[in-house]
């Protein structure tokens, strides 16, 4: 094996192309003669500085205008090259070749540059393939694989220097211990383009204040009056008329789509289903805490009680629309920071409905896994519709959307063509399915149960609404397309 010094090293091996080939070979565990790693001191400096370029360019790409140049992070960015100096000395000692430390160091710097570049490129590709929602397992691998890849590549370069298997094994363990473990523990910032937090402090403070508006004393004090006003506005039923009483509940306050959906369905009930004066809105959203009662189980029970007072339970119909996120445990999400809510699950909802004494019920639950509500809520006097099967997601809940996929297909499209909730469900199914296929989503498989008694009530309601004057029947559909995000 050659032990030639840097002074003996041929200049033809110092070309950029030759260095790149050597760096690739070292990184991918191919044999490179140690003599090729002889280098001038300037090359060590250049390689150390080049090791910062990849992370810095990635920082510039991800942070963009939110970032800034900060040379104060230079010591942190050079943390890996400094570890390489320590690792090279230890590995050279373990393999019995102390004179080889400079060449091990240069090999480590070259490997660091290549492995960084490959890892960043693969991570960006994964973000593109999964549209920014990289699976957790891939995220973990993206961090851990390079951490092991780098020291193993360095150990592989140095292994031919040791005459014994034990020396090669010790060199590998030393490489992992010195090059990987400190990085796992300290996670140093390797980019010189970093997030400019000073530019966002005021924005973050304002955003936090807006998101947590419900916790302000004035908002809390306003809620009893807002609920009382909402409930007092519910008109009395009309004798001999099948009236619709509507309660809309937007549960998740961190996204506006649920608030918009409740608002739109409320208008639909007023304009097309003759429910004017008989609607109640419960909304979790920081923008509405001073003008709309919040969506909580307590407020929902109060709404049920008020509807029961004003309706004829034998002939009138309650339409209850719940829209939010849902969990695999079939809990309907009630979120409005910083408030803490009692859970709303199928058992709690069934008990609240039964305790209210309201007989004729149309319950529409639009959320992921909402099929879990169907079995507990079904009876002869109830129509239950769920946006998804008990084990499936539903889609369309991005903050920018006007409707979820289910909400648009069922309310904004199908119920503008028919007064039958059952027929509207059948019309909506293929529309939802086609949108999910187009977006390559797993089918949500909406569900429905129709009780025999409620079916007769709803037929009577549809007949009455169909006989109304033409101008009372239709309301214009909204035009904003839904956005596909699992709920």
Mean model confidence by pLDDT: 88
From the alpha-carbon coordinates, what is the Rg to the nearest angstrom? 33 Å
Tell me what portion of residues adopts beta-strand conformation: 5-15%
| SS-based class | alpha/beta
Helix content: 40-55%
Task: Write structural notes for this entry.
Helices cover 52% and strands 8% of the residues. The protein has 487 residues and is of the alpha/beta class. It has 18 helices and 8 strands. Helix 1 crosses helix 5, helix 4 (79-94) runs antiparallel to helix 7 and helix 12 packs parallel to helix 13.
Short description:
This protein has helices at 16-27, 41-63, 74-77, 79-94, 101-129, 136-158, 165-179, 181-186, 197-211, 217-232, 256-272, 297-310, 346-356, 374-377, 405-413, 421-438, 452-466, 470-473; strands spanning 67-69, 193-195, 244-250, 279-283, 317-323, 361-366, 382-386, 447-450. The protein has 487 residues and is of the alpha/beta class. It has 18 helices and 8 strands.
Descriptors:
two-stranded antiparallel sheet, alpha/beta, single chain, 8 strands
Which helices and strands appear, and what pairs or packs with what?
Blueprint (H helix, E strand, L loop, with lengths): L15 H12 L13 H23 L3 E3 L4 H4 L1 H16 L6 H29 L6 H23 L6 H15 L1 H6 L6 E3 L1 H15 L5 H16 L11 E7 L5 H17 L6 E5 L13 H14 L6 E7 L22 H11 L4 E6 L7 H4 L4 E5 L18 H9 L7 H18 L8 E4 L1 H15 L3 H4 L14
Parallel strand pairs: 3-4, 3-5, 5-6, 6-7
Antiparallel strand pairs: 1-2, 7-8
């Amino acid at each position: 094996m050659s032990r030639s010094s840097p002074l003996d090293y041929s200049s033809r091996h110092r070309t950029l192309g030759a260095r790149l080939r050597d760096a690739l070979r070292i990184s991918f565990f191919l044999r490179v003669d140690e003599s090729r790693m002889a280098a001038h001191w300037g090359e060590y400096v250049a390689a150390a500085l080049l090791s910062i370029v990849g992370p810095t360019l990635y920082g510039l790409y991800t942070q963009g205008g939110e970032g800034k140049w900060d040379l104060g992070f230079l010591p942190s960015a050079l943390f890996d090259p400094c570890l390489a100096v320590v690792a090279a000395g230890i590995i050279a000692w373990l393999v019995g070749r102390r004179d080889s430390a400079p060449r091990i160091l240069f090999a480590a710097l070259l490997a660091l540059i290549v492995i960084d570049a490959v890892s960043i490129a693969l991570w960006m590709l994964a973000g593109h393939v999964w549209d920014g929602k990289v699976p957790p397992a891939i995220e973990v691998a993206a961090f851990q694989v390079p951490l092991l890849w780098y020291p193993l590549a360095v150990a592989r370069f140095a292994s031919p220097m040791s005459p014994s298997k034990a020396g090669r094994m010790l060199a590998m363990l030393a490489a992992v211990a010195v090059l990987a473990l400190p990085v796992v523990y300290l996670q140093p910032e390797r980019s010189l383009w970093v997030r400019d937090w000073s530019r966002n402090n005021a924005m973050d403070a304002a955003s936090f204040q807006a998101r947590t508006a419900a916790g302000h004393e004035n908002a809390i004090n306003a809620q009893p009056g807002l609920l009382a006003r909402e409930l007092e506005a519910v008109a009395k039923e009309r004798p001999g008329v099948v009236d619709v009483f509507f309660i809309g509940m937007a549960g998740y306050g961190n996204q506006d789509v649920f608030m918009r959906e409740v608002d739109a369905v409320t208008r639909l009930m007023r304009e097309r289903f003759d429910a004017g004066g008989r609607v109640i809105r419960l909304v979790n959203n920081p923008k509405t805490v001073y003008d709309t009662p919040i969506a909580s189980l307590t407020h929902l029970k109060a709404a049920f009680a008020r509807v029961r007072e004003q309706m004829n339970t034998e002939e009138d119909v309650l339409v209850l629309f719940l829209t939010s996120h849902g969990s695999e445990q079939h809990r309907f999400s009630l979120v409005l920071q910083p408030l803490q809510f009692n859970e709303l699950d199928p058992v709690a909802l069934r008990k609240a409905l039964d305790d209210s004494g309201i007989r004729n019920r149309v319950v529409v639950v639009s959320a992921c896994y909402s099929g879990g509500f169907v079995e507990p809520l079904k009876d002869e006097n109830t129509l239950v519709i769920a946006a998804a099967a008990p084990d499936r997601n539903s889609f369309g809940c991005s903050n920018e959307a006007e409707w979820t996929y289910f909400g648009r297909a069922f309310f904004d499209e199908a119920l503008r063509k028919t007064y039958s909730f059952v027929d509207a469900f059948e019309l909506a199914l293929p529309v939802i399915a086609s949108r999910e296929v187009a977006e390559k989503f797993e089918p949500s498989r909406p569900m429905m149960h129709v009780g025999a008694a409620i079916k007769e009530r709803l037929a009577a309601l549809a007949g009455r609404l169909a006989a109304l004057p033409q101008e009372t029947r239709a309301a214009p559909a909204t035009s904003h397309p839904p956005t596909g995000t699992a709920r």
